[in-house]
Design goal:
With 253 residues, the protein is an alpha/beta fold. The protein has 11 helices and 10 strands. Strands 2-3-6-7-8-9-10 form a 7-stranded mixed β-sheet. It has a 3-stranded mixed β-sheet with strand order 1-5-4, with no helix packed on it. α1 packs parallel to α4. The structure holds iron/sulfur cluster.
Length: 253
Amino acid sequence: MTEVKAKTILTPQNGGALSGHYNFSLNPYAGCAFKCSYCYVPKFPSKHKYDDWGNWVEVKTNAAELIRKERALVFGSKIFFSSATDPYQYLELKYRLSRACLTELLKYSPAKITMHTRSHLILQDLPLLQAFGERLSVGVSITTDSDEIGRIFEPMAPSISRRLALIAALNEAGINVFASIAPLLPHDPEKLVQAIKPHAKKVWIDQMSAIDTNTRKDLLAEYSDFFQADNYDRAVAKLTALLKEAGLVKPRV
Ligand code: SF4
């Protein structure tokens, strides 16, 4: 872990999956200790080695200060928080950068904030999330119904059960919460829909199979049947149909 002073904190979204939906992404940390095997971030150009993903995190200690400085950009803007890190990885317990950034954002009237996390630590900022009202939603990544599969592919992230409990808690607290299935890992489709349905109003499902980005080739080999392109497409189609039947599909993040 390294403390750094970032030059900017709001990254314009002029291309890629978020553009057209968000003006900026906000990443208070670079790198991510959750170390998901399929994470697409280590594919981006970086001074760090591809295989070293998950072993380094840069803490942008001046993140909130930069929001103050860039506040003119915040007014009326749509911000995705975060696209290249988990804003509630465990370093947040020490640095509280996501909390400080939200506190600043609240002052400058953004139009929309979408938080994206795998971590129950976000519950520690519940009053702050609630203060944004309808402008804020939280996506919780649910990649499978199985804790065991979660542990294998996302060894350092909170368990799937814990994330489902997080969705329930956010929903109960009146936060607009959606489950984000990105990417889909080996799962039982019926069980997955049943686990999500009572608590999330919407589910966003990505088509990405994560084969290209997976840093654990041994896992792709072990689960090659599931990740074989046709099988994977069929699995996504089946789950999407079940989610639609349950009235849960959300078109975009
Ligand atoms: S939590 Fe997100 S950013 Fe972090 S390793 Fe997993 S996929 Fe990558």
